[in-house]
Amino acid sequence: MDADNLKKIGEVADLLGTTPRALRYYEEEGLVAACRTPGGTRLYSTEDIARFKAVLRLAHSGLPISLIKELASIRSECTTGEESSHKVHAVIHRLISQVKNQIVSLASLESELSFASATVEGCFHCTNPPTRKGCPQCPVNQNLQMSELLNLIWEQQGCQDQTNTQNGKSL
């Protein structure tokens, strides 16, 4: 390994747009092994950086760390290329399945975001206060049952308000 090409953890973090803590976490998980100076400073090669890039891409895509770890360690645990290729192939297909599930979930989220956006556009020229009392006919309020996202952006009823509503009192 060429010592001139080794980088410290801060340099690698900057290069990859992450934090040293994230890199230490992936090292603790056994995904990358750093070289260490006698003083304990972590040093990473270009191959280590390439591994980090792959790990970060998979992790930032929301894939489970357990599958990433499994993928990273399979080959070293196998005795033949045939064994390792079959195991790697199986994990890759599990990752593909995860990605497909995320695509479906993201498409649903995109649809809900579009609905919420269109609903909020109905308030562009509203001069009423954006509250239940201030605008009881608000399109956002009227569509709360159709969108979890609208429930997030609409005011949250306090416990006192909910207690009064349950006791038959008006808001």
Note down, in words, how this protein is organized.
- 61% of the residues lie in helices and 4% in strands.
- It is mainly α and 171 residues long.
- Helix 1 (9-16) crosses helix 2 and helix 4 packs antiparallel against helix 5.
- The protein is elongated, with a radius of gyration of 26 Å.
- The relative contact order is 0.07.
Topology overview:
Blueprint: E1 7-8, H1 9-16, H2 20-28, E2 35-36, E3 42-44, H3 46-60, H4 65-77, H5 81-121, H6 139-142, H7 148-153, H8 159-166
Antiparallel strand pairs: 1-3, 2-3
Helix pairs in contact: 1-2, 4-5
Give a quick rundown of the structure.
With 171 residues, this protein is mainly alpha-helical. The protein contains 8 helices and 3 strands; from the N terminus they run βααββαααααα.
How helical, in percent, are the residues? 55-70%
CATH level-3 fold name of the domain at 1-60 = Multidrug-efflux Transporter Regulator, Chain: A, Domain 2
Helical run tally: 8
Give the tally of β-strands.
3
CATH-defined architecture of the domain at 1-60: Orthogonal Bundle
C-alpha end-to-end distance: 71 Å
How is the quaternary structure best described? single chain
- Principal-axis shape equals elongated
Mean pLDDT: 90
CATH class of the domain at 1-60: Mainly Alpha
Could you give a short account of the major beta sheet? 3 strands, antiparallel
Strand line-up in the sheet with most strands: 1-3-2
Order of helices and strands, N to C? Answer: EHHEEHHHHHH
Alpha-carbon Rg, integer:
26 Å
Proportion of strand residues: under 5%
The unreliable regions are none
Structural class by SSE content: mainly alpha
